[in-house]
Amino acid sequence: MEQHRVILITGAGSGIGAAIARTLASEHTSLLLHSRGADDSSKQAMQHVLDSVRALGAKSECYFADLNQPQQARRIVEFCVQTFGTVDQLVSNAGHASKKNLQEASSLDLAEAVQSMAGAFLELVQSARPYLEKSSCGSIVLTSSFVAHRFKPGELYPLTAAAKATAEALAMSLAAELAATGVTVNCVLPGYTLKDSQRYPQVDWQNRLPMPPLGRFGQPDDVAGAVAYLLSSHARYVTGQKLSIDGGLRLG
Fold this sequence. Notes:
By secondary structure, this protein is of the alpha/beta class. The chain is globular, with a radius of gyration of 17 Å. The chain has one domain (5-247): Rossmann fold. It has helices at residues 15-24, 40-55, 72-84, 107-134, 158-178, 203-208, 220-230; strands at 5-9, 29-35, 59-64, 89-92, 139-143, 184-190, 242-245.
C-alpha cells in the first residue's frame, strides 16, 4: 500500500513548480502549494493548478507569500503543519532569473537575489527539519539551475548563478548533516526550459539561444519527472546529488 505523503512545493503557481505538483498529485498525497501571488493573474494561475491536482485526487491548499520578506518561509511551513499535520517532503522551487550583468549589478541586487533563493531555502529547511526527520520518507529537493555551472558569453546570469550556487552549497551541507537521520537532499539543475507560453512569450530567447544536443528545449514535465523520482521510494539511497536536466547542454 502506497504511503501517504505531505509535500510542500514553493513556486508552484506555474512552469516547473506547477508541473511538479501535477506529477506528484494522487490520492496518496497532500500538497501545500506556494506562490508569490503578486497579481490577479498569478492567483488565477494558482487556482488552476489547485483545481488540476485536486482532480487527480490530491488534497491541496495554497499559500501566497513573497519569500524576499523575513519569516515568510517559516510561515509557509507553519501553515502546512496546521493544515495537514506535518511536512514529509519539501520541494524548494521558487526563484527568478536576474538578467543584470556585473557592471549593472549592485551589492544590494546580489543580496536580494541570494535572499530570495538561498536565504528562503535556508529558512524553509530550518523550519521543516523537525518534521522531515520524523518522517519515514523525509526528502528535500532544491531546484537550482544550469546557470550556476555554465558560463558562456551572451548566456550569463551572474546574480542568479551566485544565488543558486549558494543554495546548492547549503543543500550539499544539509545532505551531509541529515544523512544519519535518513532524510535525503538533492538538487535538480534544469537547462533552458519552456514554461507557460501564454503568460511568458519566449519566441525571442528560443531563436537566439543554442539548441541542446538532444535537439529540443526542456519542458516542465522533464524536470517534474526527475523530482518525482528523487522523492520516491526508489531514491531512498540517493542523496547529495546534483542532477542536470538540460538535454546535454553542459556537454558543449
